[in-house]
Amino acid sequence: EANPLKRVAGKVSDALGGYSGPEEGIPGKPAPESPSFDEPTTPREPLPAKPDQSGPDTVSPTGQPTGAEQARMAQSGAFLTDAQGTRLYDTDHSLKAGARGPVLLQDHHLREKVMHFDHERIPERVVHARGAAAHGTFRSYGTAASVTKAAFLTQDEETPVFVRFSTVLGSRGSADTVRDTRGFATKFYTSEGVFDLVGNNIPVFFIQDAIKFPDVIHAGKPHPDREIPQAQSAHDTFWDFVTLHTEATHHTLWNMSDRGIPRSYRTMEGFGVHTFRLVNAEGATTLVKFHWKPKLGVHSQVWEEAQLAGGVDPDYHRRDLADAIEAGAYPQWELGIQTFPDTPDQTFEGIDLLDATNLVPEELAPVQPIGLLTLDRNPSNYFAETEQVAFHVGHLVPGIDVTDDPLLAGRLFSYLDTQITRLGGPNFPQLPINRPHAPVNDMLRDGMHQTAVHRGVAPYRPNSLDGGCPFLAGADNGAFVETPVRVPEATKVRAAPESFADHFSQPRRFWLSMTPVEKEHIVGAYTFELGKVYEQTIKERALQVLANIDPDLCEQVATGLGLPAPAPTVPLADVAPSPALSQIGQTWPTAGRIIGILAGSTDLDGVHAVREAVLAAGMVPLVVAPTGGKLGDGTLTVQRTYVTARSIEFDALLLAGTPGVGSDAYTARDAESDPVPVGARAGDPRVGLLLSEAFRHGKAIGAWAGGEAALEAAGVPTDAPGVVVADSGTAALERITTLLGAHRVWERFSTQV
Ligand code: HDE
């Protein structure tokens, strides 16, 4: 059948008296034939949502549709229409005076289409612009019921959630794997209203007072003149600020540690950062800090890997999260709290709980698990959900209240305010992703983008015309009542308390808690970042800050920079290390790990067996071969080729060989039976690169049946730590799985663990 679009146009032209499209070609040349790619032609309703694509369910007392109904309103009917529902017969050509003539202003379809397109983008978030999100549920263990009356934290309660992860500094299109803090924001759609826990993957912050936020962000963002560098802190203005404003030292040190380059959103811890105040049914209060603990453990990339990923797969974290959920490997985190008595001074073991540059070591206040978060559904539309979701630290529910942390106070203003610009007005809570699942009966009316059709005539209180509705609840009916905390009598000042003045002892504790290999990474990160700084005075000041954390750290970075190491200007704090701060030394689940299998050999039975074993262990096998297509008898699909495979994607590599390789029998038959003999693979520079990178990045590598030939060709010693040569693929996999429990082969790094 010829081009169906032309056919439709033909029908219209019948009605128009036989006009059948442009006749006038370029003078002197015949009109070109339209290409005739076939398109389905039978009109039908839009495709139903995929199982993981239904919109968020909402309960709206204002008569607003639920998620499914909303989707129906967004798209229905088989035919293309304009925004008013009028059917269209052509969307490929502007209305013109003759096929080669001028376009007519009266073309409503053209003007509407282009007008809407012109406004498709909204301002990106001023910080945390780059993000990825998922839906899920939070199941409460009920263990927090003694300290909070929040209904969603009672026994076995299940609450729908939406979680958005993000980087902080980069623009919306920037790379995922840059060195930066990560956002970890959770919206709980509870029966008592929305609770947002808007946290980060680092438990401390750069500043103690919100009034410094524009300063630290202006310093971290690209330079105002050239707008470079994008999405990173390795530049003069950042280091200028954080070395002058030394309360930023602790957060900066975390950023320079492996925490600044997570392996995946799935392997990050999350922190509420501030101290919050919980209130129980009796009105008793407890101060708490929130923690998210990933079930897969806390893992990071190594710096070279993060840099490579920025080029070969800038969407690395976004893809990883979506793929895992689509594959059914649902990421999980346990929510926990550290609890502290709500004393008038709001300190714990000498640590000021209102200072967001402090953490409380888990050894002093253990994290007590209170519930489990599972992310099990990808968004169906990035813009509608991930982009339009609006978090706010002031979205609280009864039982969870704020403290006087001056950083939190500023946030309580900022998160509402920023949405006015970003989402274009005050009605963003009506966007489907933001709608509470609890009944809403506010007296907020009108404004830009008002989509609710409010009933009644009396959006004010008191009223008699709407029968007095809405009514005030009171604590007995679940109202949010601010905790009556005593404010000390004081004089109005612009000042910080004396207890905010120690900027070095907490960073020193962090440094002393690191294993040697983690310290090596920190030294490498400072040396890289400061090496990118142009101003000599900033480098010197940075070294002074490092000396005040630890002279050994300072000495090593100074050596890398080729500068003298200054002596500390403050007494070095005598702090005990907190082993819980280290990411190394534990054994973690291997579920969800990605195993690259270099195939293309004749031992396809071995490859089949190892693939099955990887799947059975809950890991992900990816078969890599020189070219795409199928291997052997056609039952083995190639998933990555030498062109598309990069080492960053794999947690471990397995090299299949050829049974009998090296023997006389093999030599005789290899060319015929093995389209890609081991020898050819071994010499391929792309395989060499894959192996040398995986080796450098501390990844486990296994080989069987002669597969080690490729290792030898790549200069990877087969007797190095974490390199396994076994009799069969499954035997190699077994040993590699044990190695993966430690995440990386740490012994490969120059410093011992
Ligand atoms: Fe934010 N922050 N922030 N922040 N923040 C925003 O809100 C702000 C801070 C965090 O995925 C903005 O809707 C101020 C700490 C996350 O949508 C803005 C201060 C922590 C996200 C804003 C802070 C965070 C944001 C930009 C200092 C960790 C992304 C867009 C007082 C506990 C949320 C928006 C998402 C986003 C202001 C400090 C975490 C401008 C003024 C501390 C995870 O309102």
From TrEMBL:
The keyword Iron appears for this protein: yes
Enzyme class: oxidoreductase
Biased composition (Polar residues): 55-67
Domain of life of the native organism: Bacteria
Cofactor(s) of this protein: heme
Catalysis performed (reactions): 2 H2O2 = O2 + 2 H2O
Record EC number: 1.11.1.6
Region entry Disordered, spans: 1-73
PROSITE patterns with a match to the protein in the record: CATALASE_1 (PS00437), CATALASE_2 (PS00438), CATALASE_3 (PS51402)
Family: Belongs to the catalase family. HPII subfamily.
Name this polypeptide is given: Catalase
